[in-house]
Automatic annotation (TrEMBL):
Keyword Transmembrane: yes
PANTHER family noted in UniProt: POLY-BETA-1,6-N-ACETYL-D-GLUCOSAMINE SYNTHASE
Any Pfam family: Glyco_trans_2_3
Name the record gives this protein: Glycosyltransferase, catalytic subunit of cellulose synthase and poly-beta-1,6-N-acetylglucosamine synthase
Domain (Glycosyltransferase 2-like): residue spans on this chain: 138-342
GO molecular function: glycosyltransferase activity
Keywords: Glycosyltransferase, Membrane, Transferase, Transmembrane, Transmembrane helix
InterPro entries the record matches: Glyco_trans_2-like, Nucleotide-diphossugar_trans
Highest taxon of the lineage: Bacteria
Transmembrane segments: 6-31, 306-325, 331-351, 358-378
Keyword tRNA processing attributed: no
Length: 400
């Protein structure tokens, strides 16, 4: 058998193994470079949008334990020159979430529909009511969240400058509580800070993270919140970019939440997010690709972002690409793994992490192996009929 006859099969095998990770590698390169560059300077807008009173929406399902703290955090925000109202959506609650929210000073909308359950349905229900009232903007905050005092004023400022939608920074408040929480904190510094900064640097839509995002009345009227999957935030962002709208990064304000403290809570949360993301890849990749081929090049980055898998799975794809004895794909895989390392280090640097985060990275291989143990749960969450499940947050087990 000739040398060429031996090389061609390995070449084809190597290329086939490298291709699935290629869109993610391109996206990581784009966002890492954009994230470490200096932010663009704001320029004065040619016109301003009149944005007055804002509604702060808190979708809540059986959140009696912490809802009062969240409402208090929101009510402590600077109202600016137009004020705001805190509105809690008590969605299919079986506890006294509604009563505690009212006692804390929030307006409460109660919803009971056991057939259509989940955050997306709750938000669509609330928006249907509040769009009939004199609100010019809406900010969505999860029920286990603390917010920066300037959340309202900063998002209103950006909406007045013409932003159709806004996403602020989203961080973990308790990264030192366990090793798992610290690793999650690093991942969030990458996903919720560095990547948003990178997209904003290139003038791209930064995405919606489900917590701390704002929408104008005009945006909701044009693109109703008809997103009902288990990753309704990602689904709605895809609808926004498909409509030609961009989400702006509010880097000067943020929201914070605690990482799940239990193993089951962490596993269910990751399975829901990642399974839902795989569902969106299946549903939206053909649509975006078709429109790109039809000439809508602005949708190229949203497609690359959608095809960038969670870093653990992206690393596994690159490691698999190292297997075939074909030089070019091995070089690509090594460069891709180096880029992942640079991306994580840049996230720690830009996100304000420290040396303890660097030490925690030594356990990343075990975290990747743990991800493999929840593949079945991820598969279940990727089904079209997957149900939303509240994440456990109580510290009911020893810390790592």
């Amino acid at each position: 058998m000739t040398h060429d006859a031996l090389v061609w099969p390995w070449m084809l095998f190597g290329i086939l193994l490298a291709l699935p990770s290629l869109p993610g590698t391109i996206e990581l390169l784009l966002l890492t470079l954009g994230g470490i560059l200096s932010p663009r300077r704001e320029t004065d807008p040619k016109t301003t949008t009149p944005i007055g009173r804002i509604a702060l929406l808190v979708p809540a399902h059986d959140e009696a334990e912490g809802i009062a703290q969240t409402v208090a955090s929101l009510r402590a925000c600077d109202p600016g020159d137009a004020g705001f109202e805190v509105v809690v959506i008590a969605d299919n609650c079986t506890d006294d979430t509604a009563e505690r929210a009212r006692s804390a000073g929030a307006r409460v909308l109660e919803r009971h529909d056991l057939q259509r359950r989940g955050k997306g349905y709750a938000l669509d229900f609330a928006f249907g009511i509040l769009l009939e009232e004199p609100f010019d903007g809406f900010i969505v905050v999860d029920a286990d969240t603390r917010v920066a005092p300037n959340l309202v004023t900063e998002q209103r400022r950006l909406m007045r400058r013409g932003a159709a939608a806004v996403q602020c920074g989203y961080r973990i408040d308790n990264p030192a509580s366990s090793l798992r929480a610290r690793l999650m904190g690093i991942a969030w510094m990458a996903f919720n800070v560095l990547r948003l900064r990178g997209r904003e640097r290139w003038g791209l839509s930064v995405g919606i993270l489900g917590n701390g995002f704002g929408l104008t009345r005009e945006t909701l009227a044009a693109v109703p919140y008809e997103a009902t999957s288990v990753v309704e935030d990602l689904e709605y962002h895809l609808r926004l970019v498909a409509s030609g709208r961009r989400v702006v990064y509010a880097a000067a304000t943020e929201v914070q939440t605690d990482a799940p403290m239990t193993r089951s809570g962490g596993a269910s949360q990751r399975a829901r997010w990642e399974g839902g993301r795989f569902r969106m890849i299946i549903d939206w990749s053909p649509r975006l690709l078709g429109r790109i081929l039809a000439g809508e090049r602005r949708l190229t980055e949203p497609l690359l972002e959608l095809l960038l898998l969670p870093l653990a799975f992206h690393v596994l794809l690159l490691l698999v690409a190292l297997v075939p004895p074909f030089g070019p794909t091995r070089i690509y895989a090594l460069l891709g793994l180096t880029l992942v390392a640079l991306h994580v280090l840049a996230a720690i640097r830009i996100g304000g992490g420290g040396w303890r985060d660097l030490l925690a990275l030594a356990t990343a291989p075990f975290y990747i192996l743990w991800k493999l143990t929840i593949l079945r749960a991820i598969g279940r969450a990727s089904r079209t009929d997957a149900a939303w499940v509240r994440t456990e947050r109580n510290d009911t087990e020893p810390k790592d």
